[in-house]
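User: Design a sequence. Structure:
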């Protein structure tokens, strides 16, 4: 569970993102930018293969009956 300080830092970082510039970039440009960032820690293919997909329990719940109709 993230600490209050970590959440505040994440909020601050999100506010600093130039979202218009990011939306204008291709996937390849985004990956190249991440690879050139010394603070970035992109996982290797081997590391990705070890990851487990975790779907939060909330999203696995069935929708209310009226919403399903």
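Assistant: Done.
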């Amino acid at each position: 569970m993230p600490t209050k300080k970590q959440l505040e830092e994440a909020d601050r970082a999100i506010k600093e993102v130039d979202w218009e510039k990011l939306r204008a970039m291709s996937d390849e440009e985004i990956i190249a930018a991440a690879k050139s960032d010394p603070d970035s820690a992109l996982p290797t293919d081997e590391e990705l293969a070890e990851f487990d997909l975790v779907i939060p329990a909330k999203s696995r719940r069935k929708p209310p009956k009226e919403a399903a109709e």
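The mean pLDDT is 86. The helical segments are 4-15, 19-24, 27-36, 45-50, 57-60, 65-68.
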